[in-house]
Amino acid sequence: MAERGVLGLFSDVESAANAGTALREAGIEFEVLSGSPYPEGAFSEHTPPHRLYVFPFLGALCGFSVAILLTAGTQLAYPLVTGGKPVLSIPPMAIITYEGTMLGAILFTVLGVVFESRLPRPIVGLYDKRITEGWIGLLVVGEEGLLGPAERILRQHGAVEVKRG
């Protein structure tokens, strides 16, 4: 069964916050659409936990591994024994390993930000142009049985317009 949605449009913040609180008390999950930044939780919305901190660690681990393989592999493939010193020289390997670790951490952090921001978003669901003009939209996505009570709550708390899609 395909999920459908209800979008409630609010012209003021207080009505939107009251509607968000009522939706939350009714156990209905919703998403806040706004062109202006508001603090997390200002509309009683659920803030999912993020995993952004994992990406730099994975990137650093990958970068470290690639740098060790690259430097050790190069020194073992072209051994230059000078003065009886060991083939694997730690100081040059440390520099390349440090650079590889940092590069991996930075690249994976950028990828993590894109992933956690849910970008790119090729299919945009319900939306209204007035949201970019400062209005606030509360979007409820779910099955048909959930949308009726959500629409009623949005109208009760001063939604200027409620769209279904």
User: What does the average pLDDT come to?
Assistant: 91
What pattern of helices and strands is seen along the backbone?
EHEHHEHE
- Name the overall outline: rod-shaped
Give the biggest sheet: 4 strands, antiparallel
Q: Report the sheet-strand fraction.
A: 5-15%
| Span of the ends, CA to CA | 14 Å
Within the largest sheet, what's the order of strands?
A: 2-3-1-4
Number of helices, where a helix is a run of at least 4 consecutive DSSP H or I residues: 4
The helicity comes to 40-55%
Structural class: alpha+beta
**Radius of gyration, Cα only, in angstroms?**
26 Å
Low-confidence stretches: none
Number of strands: 4
How would you describe what is shown here?
The protein is an alpha+beta fold and 165 residues long. It contains 4 helices and 4 strands, in the order E-H-E-H-H-E-H-E. It has helices spanning 13-25, 54-77, 90-116, 144-156; strands at 4-10, 31-34, 136-142, 161-164. The mean pLDDT is 91.
